[in-house]
Amino acid sequence: MKQEQIKTLIDALAASDLAELEYSEDGSTLRLVKQSALAAAPTARRTAAARQARAAASAEPALPEAAAAECLAPLYGVVHLQPAPGEPPFVQPGQPVEAGQLLCVIEAMKMFNEVRADAAATVQAVLVQSGQEVDAGQPLFRFA
């Protein structure tokens, strides 16, 4: 990959609404992520983790909404909740999931980006529909 190509890709990402960009050529892959996207996702996870820690530390029984966590879209794109049309979805409400389990795929610029569970939990709600455009940071799933 030439330095001019990399600079062009950086400029294209900076001028777009995309949170990240991945480009492959001749066996090499370049993945660019805006700092705002890097800062947004961990902040949301830290907030959910802090809520759970406060709920666990409190002597009172935890409220259901305090224990709930959300999976956020890591980038802008079209969400796919099933591997192919007519096939069952990756996950459904009420289904337990393991850490690292595939939840959905987000298509952006002809690239398919897997979204996986951060931790073991139970899917409480699917907050999007298959084929829907989602923004980076938008909640996709709610966990109990």
Ordered list of secondary-structure elements with their pairings:
Elements: H1 3-15, E1 20-25, E2 28-33, H2 35-57, H3 64-67, E3 69-72, E4 77-80, E5 96-97, E6 102-108, E7 111-116, E8 121-126, E9 133-134, E10 139-143
Antiparallel strand pairs: 1-2, 3-10, 4-6, 4-9, 5-8, 6-7, 8-10
The gross shape turns out to be elongated
What is the residue-mean pLDDT, rounded to a whole number? 80
Number of helices: 3
Secondary-structure element order, as H and E? Answer: HEEHHEEEEEEEE
Quick one: how many beta strands? 10
Q: Outline the low-pLDDT stretches.
A: 57-67
Question: What composes the largest sheet?
Answer: 4 strands, antiparallel
Q: Which radius of gyration do the C-alpha atoms yield?
A: 17 Å
- Which class do the helix and strand fractions yield? alpha+beta
Helix content: 25-40%
Strand order of the largest sheet: 3-10-8-5
End-to-end Cα distance = 45 Å
